[in-house]
């Protein structure tokens, strides 16, 4: 992820020009906490208002974004319960809101942060775009987020003309990245759950015609959304995936040889033996009877010898 090999820390001056742009940076840094190391480290290197014991909590007069890229620990704040922090977690701190966080003693963690203030972040809070009760996000590990921090560090170090304007733009970019990646991760997690539930439903109802409308209702999505999500994850519509599951189950039953072809078709809910046989041959290249007799093994052997 491109972490610094050593800690970085910078507190910034803010002039009237920076304030007119409605967002400005107050401090930024990176630190790597080793297992067993006291936290926060190097307390005396911070101004007095930043020196509070973070395990007990503190209140700042600024906003901050804190991004964890290694290790684990906890975060909590007023209105937000104590929550586990893992790599790829980001949390927002708000002015006037008590908060507490720290790494686990047995792991430590790597921590990036940037402090900022101005009318723009205040408006985001007023409009409920950022809320103390939704302080923690799990965007995952992304080089783009780390790169934005590195750009902020470089600007903070050089303090070239209008550096605060560029840093403010990068903070806005960070806010957008954290929230959008978190939203995408939640969507993907939700979609994984939908696909998993559909597969389980198919397995449990392999011998019937699935009620996709009813299943969509149970999963609290529209039938069209369910189809779209399922195809994005599997490459097949639910109907064609279900047919393939039936064919795979038919292969197993035919190989076991305990049921005749007609019995397999009946067991799997096909409307007729003829339809089952025709579909099976389309999908496998041989008829159910040939499969049961072992023709598929000879075909596979012939193909292997030709290759």
Shape: elongated
Tell me which CATH architecture of the largest domain applies here: Sandwich
Low-confidence stretches: 1-5
Q: SSE order, as H and E?
A: EHEEEEEEEHEHHHHHHHHH
The largest sheet is: 6 strands, antiparallel
Strand content: 15-25%
Order of adjacent strands in the largest pleated sheet: 1-2-8-3-6-9
- Distance from N terminus to C terminus (CA atoms, Å) equals 44 Å
Helix content: 40-55%
Instruction: Give the domain tally.
Output: 2
CATH top level of the largest domain?
Mainly Beta
- Count of alpha and pi helical runs: 11
CATH topology of the largest domain, which one? Jelly Rolls
Radius of gyration: 29 Å
Secondary-structure content class:
alpha+beta
């Amino acid at each position: 992820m491109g972490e610094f090999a050593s800690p970085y820390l910078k507190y910034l001056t803010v002039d009237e020009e920076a304030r007119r742009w409605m967002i400005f940076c107050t401090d930024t840094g990176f630190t790597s906490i080793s297992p067993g190391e006291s936290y926060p480290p190097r307390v005396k290197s911070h101004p007095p208002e930043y020196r509070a014991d973070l395990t007990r909590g503190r209140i700042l007069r600024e906003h901050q974004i804190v991004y964890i890229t290694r290790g684990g620990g906890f975060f909590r704040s007023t209105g937000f319960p104590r929550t586990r922090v893992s790599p790829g977690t980001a949390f927002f701190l708000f002015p006037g809101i008590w908060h507490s966080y720290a790494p686990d003693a047995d792991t430590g963690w790597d921590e990036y942060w940037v402090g900022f203030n101005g009318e723009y972040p205040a408006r985001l809070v007023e409009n409920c775009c950022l809320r103390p009760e939704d302080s923690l996000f799990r965007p995952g590990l992304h080089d783009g987020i780390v790169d934005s921090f590195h750009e902020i560090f470089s600007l903070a170090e050089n303090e070239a003309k209008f550096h605060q304007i560029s840093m403010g733009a990068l903070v806005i970019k960070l806010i957008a990245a954290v929230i959008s990646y978190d939203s995408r991760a939640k969507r993907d997690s939700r979609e994984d759950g939908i696909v998993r539930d559909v597969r389980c439903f198919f397995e449990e109802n392999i011998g019937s015609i699935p009620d996709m409308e009813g299943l969509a209702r149970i999963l609290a999505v529209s039938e069209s959304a369910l189809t779209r999500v399922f195809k994005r994850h599997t490459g097949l519509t639910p109907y064609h995936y279900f047919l393939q599951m039936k064919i795979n189950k038919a292969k197993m039953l035919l190989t076991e040889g305990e049921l005749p072809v007609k019995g397999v078709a009946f067991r799997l809910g096909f409307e007729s033996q003829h339809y089952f046989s025709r579909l099976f041959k389309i999908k496998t290249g041989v008829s159910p009877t040939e499969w049961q007799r072992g023709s598929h093994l000879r075909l596979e052997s012939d193909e292997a010898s030709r290759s």
